[in-house]
TrEMBL record:
Gene3D superfamilies: Antioxidant, Horf6, Chain A, domain2, Glutaredoxin
Family as reported in the entry's similarity comment: Belongs to the peroxiredoxin family. Prx6 subfamily.
Highest taxon of source: Eukaryota
Pfam families: 1-cysPrx_C (PF10417), AhpC-TSA (PF00578)
Protein name: Thioredoxin domain-containing protein
Signal peptide: none
CDD domains: PRX_1cys
Organism from which the protein derives: Lipomyces starkeyi NRRL Y-11557
GO terms of molecular function: thioredoxin peroxidase activity
Domain (Thioredoxin) ranges: 42-207
Keyword annotations: Antioxidant, Oxidoreductase, Peroxidase, Redox-active center
Length: 262
């Protein structure tokens, strides 16, 4: 199925309206295929598509970049914009935390390398606690990767560049060392993300993989975890020792410190 789409937005009617002319009601944006892809590109559990790209750390092959690490690929609408500047500064400040979790960060926006390099200076200037952008930022001015990962805005028709082409939204992809997409978050351009939440869901995924548990609402590391219904009471007792059954299908056990050791 080929269904990743690009759109062309006409900006001429806006200019005419500003000049006082009567203009027809705006027509729906025109969608037309840009690249041929499987629509399931960003389904959870699907392979993270590979690509080659220019970044602020030089050219990369994405799968080689991932290597044996977890990776967080995150996009933002544009360089030199206010919300994005706060977000990049916040990710930069948490880089050590991601490193402790064997996780690489890589940003992306639809701007070129020169723009990224200059913008990084601004980010570092305004970031609290002297955050340094140690991770690469992909230059994707043609939206090749943005379309590959379906990071392009289908919603906010004002989120376009001077040629009327849609900018990227605030997407987050958590990709595991097997190069599978494990989590996605999609935020509109108007709303900055929460880096603590990105770290929290990474902790949940890694805890689940290592200890075979799931995590309840608002869980943070250290709190009790859930024994999945697929594990019998006998198997739960053997694996976790004590557990507490609130309902036969809702059983909690202590944070599995021992199971999380490498
Ligand atoms: C921002 O980062 O502030 C922003 C960027 C694009 C559209 C809207 C807001």
């Amino acid at each position: 199925m080929t269904s990743v789409l690009s759109r062309t937005l006409s900006v001429a009617p806006l200019a005419a309206a500003r000049a006082g002319a009567r203009v027809a009601a705006p027509r729906a944006p025109i969608f037309r295929p840009a690249v041929s892809l499987k629509f399931a590109a960003r389904a959870l559990g699907s392979p993270a598509p590979n690509f080659e790209a220019e970044t602020t750390h030089g050219p990369i092959d994405f799968h080689e970049f991932i290597g044996d690490s977890w990776t967080i690929l995150f996009s933002h609408p544009a360089d030199f914009t206010p919300v994005c500047t706060t977000e990049l500064g916040a990710f930069a400040q948490l880089e050590e935390e991601f490193e402790k979790r064997n996780t690489k960060l890589i940003g992306l926006s639809a701007n070129g390398l020169d723009s990224h390099e200059k913008w990084i200076q601004d980010i570092e200037e305004v970031a609290t606690n002297g955050g340094r952008v140690g991770f690469p930022i992909i230059a994707d001015p043609e939206r090749k990767i943005a379309f590959l990962y379906d990071m392009v805005d289908h919603q906010d028709l004002t989120n376009i560049d001077t040629k009327g082409v849609a900018f990227t939204i605030r997407a987050v992809f958590i990709i595991d060392p097997n190069k599978k997409i494990r989590l996605t978050m999609l935020y509109p351009a108007s709303t900055g993300r929460n880096t603590a939440e990105v770290l929290r869901v990474l902790d949940s995924l890694q805890t689940g993989d290592k200890a075979g548990v799931t995590t309840p609402i608002n869980w943070v590391p250290g709190q009790d975890v859930i024994v999945p219904p697929s594990v019998s009471d006998e198997a739960a007792a053997a694996k976790f020792g004590e557990f507490m059954a609130v309902k036969p299908y809702l059983r909690f056990t202590k944070y599995p410190t021992e199971l999380l050791k490498e």
